Structures are given as C-alpha cells and as structure tokens.
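ok trying again, last paste got cut off:
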Amino acid sequence: MGALSSGLTSSLSFLIQTLGGLYIMAVLVRFLLQLVRADFYNPISQAIVKATSPLLTPIRKVIPGYAGIDFASLVLALVLQIILLFVDAALKGHVPTLTDIPDALFLSTIQIAISFLKIYLYSLIIIAIASWVAPGSYNPGLMLLHQITEPLTKRVRAFIPPLGGLDFSLMLLVIIIMSLLRFLGA
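nice, full thing came through this time. structure:
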C-alpha cells in the first residue's frame, strides 16, 4: 500500500508542478510581452491576457506598474512559485513553517530567473528552426517570439553584424543563455 500511495503522491506532485509551472510561464510571458510592447491584438497575446487576468487584475490594484514594467506580474509569478514549493514540500511530508519563507523566496527567485532564461532559449531555438524550415512565413506565434527576442538580438547584432547573410546573434545568445542556466544550476 505504501508504494501505491507514494506513486499517487509523486503523480500528484508532478501534475501540480507542471500545471503551476505552465501558468507561471504564461504570467512571465505576459510580463515580457508588455515589457517589449508586443502586439496586443495578436491572438496568442489575447489568450495569455485572458488566462492570466483573473489572478493578475486584483494584484494590479495593489501593485501598480512603473515605467512600462509590470511589477504585479513579477510578484504574482514569485508568489505562485513559492506556493508551488510549499505544496511540493507538503506532498513530500515536510510541513512548511515561517522559517522556510526566506529559503523559499530565494529558491523561487532563482526559479523565476531560470524560467525567463528558458523562455528566451526556447524562443531563439524556435526562431532559428523556423528560419530554416519556412523562411519569411507569417505565424502569430513566431511574430511574438521575434518581438520578445528582438531587443536582445538587436544589441548583439550591434557587436556582431550578420556575415554573408548569416546571423550569428541567435547562436551567441543561445550559448550565453545556456551558460547562465548552467551557472544557476538548471
């Protein structure tokens, strides 16, 4: 009976971590879309706004944005990440206490940074593959990925311009992001 209960706990933990992680990613993508002023009328932008608004709208009443930075989204992502840590710890038999909050805050901040890096990493890889498979094609998802990554790639292109039609900015950014992920222990 212990193995069955352990399996159910493990499965429940996986399900909660996966769904919670996906929602946190949606909140972080919304933060990035607002930061880079991406196309609000893109259908994917609209879906992200609809999915994140129920939790984000009340927080915005308390935590306003400033200079185009949506602090409410960051706070929501951080709080949700802390909740996920506590739920996971509770499922594994550890009852979280108030003394666990500083550690949870630190680990959650690291996890949010890792999530941002992964968003950029996957976006750059998808853009690179799409440029090989279907160059010049239009897709709402690709347009958003371009809008999210363009501020970074533009800065890298200032130092390493395209050579012979080949843009090495994506490759360099992928290497930098992967190094940062290794540093953060992802």
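cool. The radius of gyration is 19 Å. The chain has one domain: 2-184.
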